[in-house]
Write a structure and sequence with these properties.
Blueprint (H helix, E strand, L loop, with lengths): L3 E4 H13 L12 E9 L6 E9 L5 H5 L2 H4 L6 E8 L19 E2 L1 E6 L8 E7 L8 E8 L2 E12 L13 H5 L35 E3 L2 E2 L4 E16 L4 E9 L3 E2 L8 E2 L3 E3 H15 L4 E17 H9 L11 E4 L4 E15 L3 H9 L23
Parallel strand pairs: 2-19
Antiparallel strand pairs: 1-18, 2-3, 3-7, 4-5, 4-8, 6-7, 8-9, 10-16, 11-15, 12-13, 12-14, 12-17, 17-19
Length: 387
């Protein structure tokens, strides 16, 4: 795989050198086209999206050019974009699509999507496929011009990673340990509610001890370098007048990286003190300022683990905001014949119902008490806070 690191300071120096020479070479020659690619595959997603743009060196107003979709987008039907699949280290094309026993090439469909307003035009040409990808092997992106199908103008290849196992946490019952064929405490599962058997307690989420440090444990997967965890608390707003709204609040953790790419490493660093969850919940609900709320019902907890390949981690690190005034910021690309990133991430999701004591504490914790959560015992908001 081709990896390119370019120092911006070198580009500036080189440009100044060329400009100061004779007119034999014009660095800002108009129409110098470069392919820009941003594609992050995810075998857990129903649709794969790859954005492909044009980059031009121009003497015109760069800001105006960036807002002109005809400048940054290729024309309709100008490109043919495909995905091929190989075993790692192999050169023989393999099956590309789960459920299709003959397909060895995915031809992506182009479309125009409207993005948020920003420095570039909000009309972006994307290439998509709804084919279900395999979670193993490597996918190769191939870009050609319709006018010359014998020439590859840009390409890239990425290893594919599977999702984090929802039963790999070992000694961690909350939230991953009890997920198996005979006991599935997923939200809406078959476990009794109201809760009657104390032996079932580890199968539910329970953050009722405010000072206790909680862990979200799982094992790393092969070929994944970086991991993000999101804890999403779902609740239901009951409004005056009878209407209800399904709402949620996110608790984010800092990204963590595995020591190597072999897999099997037990992560212990995604942790928090239980009261920090209540503090975050109260703060985020206050920001919503939802009017006419009669009460709120705790619903369930969702845990989302995203894993990313080493190439994706490197790309994110290189492009992270700089904390210094240094100008020689490096640039990373793994696109042959272009610039950008082609990588993979995966997603694993666990949903868990809430233990009765946890529901009660949501109603009386000082951080969440003002927001009228109903307790488990009475089904109504509490009159006072709890210690």
């Amino acid at each position: 795989m081709k990896k390119i690191f370019i120092s911006l300071s070198l580009i500036i120096v080189a440009s100044a050198t060329f400009i100061s020479c004779k007119n034999d070479l014009n660095v800002l020659a108009p129409g110098k086209e470069v392919v820009s690619v941003y594609g992050i595959l995810n075998p857990n997603e129903p649709i794969q999206n790859i954005r492909i743009n044009k980059i031009f060196l121009t003497t015109a107003d760069a800001n105006a050019a960036a807002q002109d979709q005809s400048v940054i987008n290729f024309d309709a039907n100008e490109l043919v974009v495909t995905l091929e699949r190989y075993y790692t280290g192999g050169t023989t094309p393999q099956l590309t699509t789960v459920g299709n026993s003959t397909k060895k090439e995915i031809v992506l469909t182009e479309t125009i999507v409207t993005t948020a307003d920003g420095a570039f035009s909000n009309q972006q040409r994307m290439w998509q496929t709804t084919d279900k990808l395999y979670p193993t092997g490597e996918y190769k992106l191939v870009i050609k011009k319709t006018s010359d199908l014998n020439t590859i103008i840009a390409s890239a290849q990425t290893v594919v990673i599977d999702s984090v196992s929802t039963s790999s946490g070992g000694a961690s019952p909350n939230p991953f340990y009890y997920l198996n064929a005979t006991a599935t405490p997923m939200h809406g599962g078959t476990f009794p509610f109201p809760i009657s058997d104390p032996a079932d307690k580890p199968k539910y989420v329970n953050y009722d001890v405010f000072t206790l440090t909680q862990f979200i444990k799982f094992k790393s997967i092969k070929n994944a370098k970086t991991y993000d965890v999101l804890m999403r608390f779902h609740y239901i707003d009951s409004l005056i007048g009878g209407a209800t709204n399904n709402e949620y609040v996110d608790y984010n953790f800092e990204s963590q990286q595995s020591k190597d790419l072999t897999g099997g490493e037990l992560f212990l660093s995604f942790k928090f003190v239980a009261n920090d969850f209540y503090t975050n919940l109260g703060r985020e609900i206050a920001k919503k300022a939802t009017p006419n709320v009669k009460n709120r019902k705790p619903d369930y907890m969702e845990y989302i683990v995203n894993a990313g390949t080493e190439a994706l981690y490197t790309f994110l690190q290189v492009n992270a905001p700089s904390a210094t005034i240094a100008q020689d910021k490096p640039y990373y690309s793994n696109i042959t014949g272009g610039v950008g990133i082609f990588a993979c991430r995966s997603t694993s999701i666990v949903t868990k119902d809430l233990w009765s004591n946890f529901v009660d504490k949501l109603a009386c914790n000082p951080n969440t008490f003002p927001y009228l959560f109903c307790d488990y015992t009475t089904g109504k908001p509490r009159a006072t806070t709890c210690p």
